[in-house]
From TrEMBL, chain A:
<dbReference type="InterPro" id="IPR036884">
    <property type="entry name" value="2Fe-2S-bd_dom_sf"/>
</dbReference>
<dbReference type="InterPro" id="IPR036010">
    <property type="entry name" value="2Fe-2S_ferredoxin-like_sf"/>
</dbReference>
<dbReference type="InterPro" id="IPR001041">
    <property type="entry name" value="2Fe-2S_ferredoxin-type"/>
</dbReference>
<dbReference type="InterPro" id="IPR012675">
    <property type="entry name" value="Beta-grasp_dom_sf"/>
</dbReference>
<keyword id="KW-0560">Oxidoreductase</keyword>
<protein>
    <submittedName>
        <fullName>Xanthine dehydrogenase YagT iron-sulfur-binding subunit</fullName>
    </submittedName>
</protein>
<dbReference type="InterPro" id="IPR002888">
    <property type="entry name" value="2Fe-2S-bd"/>
</dbReference>
<dbReference type="Pfam" id="PF01799">
    <property type="entry name" value="Fer2_2"/>
</dbReference>
<dbReference type="InterPro" id="IPR006058">
    <property type="entry name" value="2Fe2S_fd_BS"/>
</dbReference>
UniProtKB/TrEMBL annotation, chain B:
<feature type="domain" description="FAD-binding PCMH-type">
    <location>
        <begin position="1"/>
        <end position="222"/>
    </location>
</feature>
<dbReference type="InterPro" id="IPR051312">
    <property type="entry name" value="Diverse_Substr_Oxidored"/>
</dbReference>
<keyword id="KW-0560">Oxidoreductase</keyword>
<dbReference type="Pfam" id="PF03450">
    <property type="entry name" value="CO_deh_flav_C"/>
</dbReference>
<protein>
    <submittedName>
        <fullName>Xanthine dehydrogenase YagS FAD-binding subunit</fullName>
    </submittedName>
</protein>
<dbReference type="Pfam" id="PF00941">
    <property type="entry name" value="FAD_binding_5"/>
</dbReference>
<dbReference type="InterPro" id="IPR036683">
    <property type="entry name" value="CO_DH_flav_C_dom_sf"/>
</dbReference>
<dbReference type="InterPro" id="IPR005107">
    <property type="entry name" value="CO_DH_flav_C"/>
</dbReference>
<dbReference type="InterPro" id="IPR016167">
    <property type="entry name" value="FAD-bd_PCMH_sub1"/>
</dbReference>
């Protein structure tokens, strides 16, 4: 079965017919030519397909495109309109937070989603006091990014990139 | 993946009517388990009824002081909700210990309860599995057993239910609200999931076409302390080997009330009624907690590859209860 859906991706609205089996990831990559989200596992296990769906980070490989008709999607590509990098992207460059780069677009989207969640005061598995304020310690950063695997093991510098972003944001 | 029809439900009635109309129709919520299974070829429905936009995504107070959680509430939003964090910390903690942030942003309350076992043989259509293909045999009996049951299993299936969220819900005596073709009903969470017996194909008592609309949480006394402990092979983003949800009410050093459920040990979240009975009225001391854990696990029948879990469950339970008692005494 096919269905017509509308997706707003990185600020541009697209209308497309998709097979109902199409994942949001495949719709982005194969139908809309946006190859910044990557297919690592296709089973929700690696996070390389992470995009922001209506502002929240999700694994786009397990989302059916047809179910998200009308959604607003931001990919790592869309975080940098024009030539100006998003602060998180720049921090990844500054801190050497990748090697092959395959997981990077997913990592970057995940960090952007994570910073919003922390600002919203959402606790994590390692937050001691569930009702208290959120302090993004290294332990917190690692836990909050555990849904993004990096086969090159750039984790240490990814944490550093998040710290750089936080330092830049601090008043 | 074989082709399927897709219908976006407009309301609960429409969802139930459409799903009931076809014997192999399946509801779609966040898709984080179903889409995986479609891709793996574990299930091949001819119709998906999408319930992810139904207006049952609220968390509301109930007249008796409890809380009603809509079936469509995302796992991330439930964990972050101020009432859940304050009054049901073991539930928030269990949610936060499950999956990843990206997955929890999609996963729903209803879908979480109905997620299927992560038994490696169930997930691999090339291996025999009574749950996936009744009568084909259970590969785990002579296979890899690290993630398998120690309580309530049968010769037909030794799988465990993988949900973290369901464990505190079992301890809390939550009620699952259902709507089907023949009306509404409420099922206690502890009676919602089944033991495998000779019908491992069925994970729950849900009838075809029945829709989970909400989960009701009863009120807990304000003096109750609760916690969730998950033991796993890595620090984050892994399913439980063993988990413990416990709520303890102590006055003058005596256990007035206690609720305990174990995860990762059985085909359903395991309500530890024997441990609870042993503890009610007992001194809130580590020795009592150990006796209670031993009483509960006396009936454990692990496989060679899951035998370590009996010790692990006992120690986790003693540690959680001791922690709660100390916290209460402070
Ligand atoms: C890599 C990975 C790691 C994970 N780790 C964990 C973990 O550590 N702990 C944990 O607990 N979980 C874990 N999960 C599982 C995750 O929690 C579940 O996939 C999720 O909760 C399912 O919710 P959903 O809304 O996406 O369900 P879906 O995939 O949409 O549906 C699942 C099932 O529920 C049915 N369904 C959905 N909603 C309803 C309803 N309202 N009424 C009736 N039927 C319904 C569907 O028909 C389907 O059969 C993990 C998943 C992945 C992919
Ligand atoms: S334990 Fe259950 S799910 Fe796993 S192979 Fe055996 S029958 Fe299948
Ligand atoms: S490709 Fe989606 S999580 Fe791996
Ligand atoms: S940089 Fe290579 S996988 Fe992360």
């Amino acid at each position: 079965m096919e269905a017509e859906i509308r997706l707003r991706v990185d600020g541009t609205t697209h209308t497309l017919r998709v097979d109902t089996r199409t994942s949001l990831l495949d719709a982005l990559r194969d139908r809309l030519g946006n190859t910044s989200p990557k297919k690592g596992c296709d089973h929700g296990q690696c996070g390389s397909c992470t995009v922001l769906l209506d502002g929240r980070r999700i694994t786009s490989c397990l989302a059916l495109a047809v179910s998200h008709d009308g959604a607003e999607v931001t990919t790592a590509d869309g975080l940098a309109p024009g030539d100006t990098l998003h602060p998180v992207q720049r921090a990844f460059l500054d801190q050497d937070a990748f090697q092959c780069g395959y997981c990077t677009p997913g990592q970057v989207c995940s960090v952007v989603g994570m910073l919003a969640e922390a600002t919203d005061g959402r606790p994590s598995h390692v937050t001691g006091e569930l009702t208290g304020p959120v302090q993004l310690t290294d332990e917190e950063i690692r836990e909050r990014l555990s849904g993004n695997l990096c086969r090159c093991g750039a984790y240490v510098n990814i944490v550093a990139a998040v710290r750089q972003t936080l330092a830049e944001e601090a008043p | 993946m074989i082709p399927f029809d897709y219908h976006r439900a407009t309301d609960v009635e429409d969802a139930v009517r459409t799903a009931t109309s076809r014997p192999d129709a399946t509801y779609l919520a966040g898709g984080t388990n179903l889409v995986d299974h479609l891709r793996l070829g574990i299930t091949s429905p001819s119709l998906l009824v999408d319930v992810s936009r139904l207006p049952f995504d609220d968390i509301d107070p109930l007249p008796d002081g409890g809380v009603r959680v809509g079936a469509g509430v995302r796992n991330s939003d439930l964990a972050a909700h101020p009432t859940i964090r304050r009054d049901y910390p073991m539930l928030a903690a269990a949610l936060l210990a499950g999956a990843s942030w990206q997955l929890r942003n999609l996963a729903t309350t209803g879908g979480n309860l109905l997620q299927r076992t992560r038994c490696a043989y169930f997930q691999n259509p090339a291996t025999p599995c009574n749950k996936r293909e009744p009568g084909s045999g259970c590969s785990a009996l002579a296979g890899w057993q690290r993630h398998h049951a120690i309580l309530g299993a049968s010769e037909h299936c030794v799988a465990v239910h993988p949900s973290d969220m369901a464990v505190p819900l079992a301890a809390l005596d939550a009620t699952v609200r259902l709507t089907g073709a023949h009306g509404d009903r409420g099922v206690p969470l502890t009676a919602f999931h089944r033991l495998p017996g000779d019908e491992p194909r069925r994970d729950t008592v849900l009838e075809h076409g029945e829709l989970i609309t909400a989960v009701d949480l009863p009120r807990l006394p304000p003096t109750t302390r609760s916690a969730y402990r998950k033991v796993r092979d890595r620090a984050s983003y892994a399913f439980a080997l063993v988990s413990v949800a416990a709520a303890l009410t102590v006055t003058d050093g005596v256990v007035r009330d206690v609720r305990i459920a174990l995860g990762g040990v059985a085909h359903k979240p395991w309500r530890a009624t024997r441990a609870e009975e042993t503890l009610r009225g007992a001194d809130a001391r580590p020795a009592s907690f150990r006796a209670a854990a031993e009483a509960e696990l006396a009936e454990a029948e692990p496989l060679p590859g899951s035998a370590f879990k009996t010790t692990m469950a006992r120690e986790a339970l003693v540690s959680v209860l001791t922690g709660l008692a100390e916290e209460g005494a402070r």
